[in-house]
Amino acid sequence: MINASFAQDCPACSRKLHVRVAYLGRRVTCQHCQAEFIAAESSSHLMQPAFLRDSLVQRADDLLRRLEIQAEYA
């Protein structure tokens, strides 16, 4: 299965992390400084209108479901 991810800077040490999309909204730990924070997409994305954010999340969920189904049949 493909593990889609996005880049996020650690709020404590500012190192760039690659976070799995499945962890959006969940508490994660920085592998460099051990700081805990909530995985979130960039603030520019959060400033988009709600219908665009919802559409993006829905598309990501649909893609993840398709990938899981494909993995079951592989």
Précis, in short:
The chain is α+β, with helices and mostly antiparallel strands.
| Cα end-to-end separation | 9 Å
Structural class: alpha+beta
What portion of residues belong to β-strands? Answer: 15-25%
Helix content: 25-40%
Number of beta-strand segments: 4
Which descriptor suits the 3D outline? elongated
Helix and strand succession?
EEEEHH
Adjacency order of strands in the biggest sheet:
1-2
What do these coordinates show?
With 74 residues, the chain is α+β, with helices and mostly antiparallel strands. It has one domain (5-73). The protein is 38% helix and 22% strand. It has helices at residues 43-46, 50-73; strands spanning 5-9, 16-20, 27-29, 36-38. Strands 1-2 form a two-stranded antiparallel sheet. The protein has a two-stranded antiparallel ribbon with strand order 3-4.
Helix and strand topology:
Layout: E1 5-9, E2 16-20, E3 27-29, E4 36-38, H1 43-46, H2 50-73
Antiparallel strand pairs: 1-2, 3-4
List keywords for this structure.
alpha+beta, about 70 residues, two-stranded antiparallel ribbon
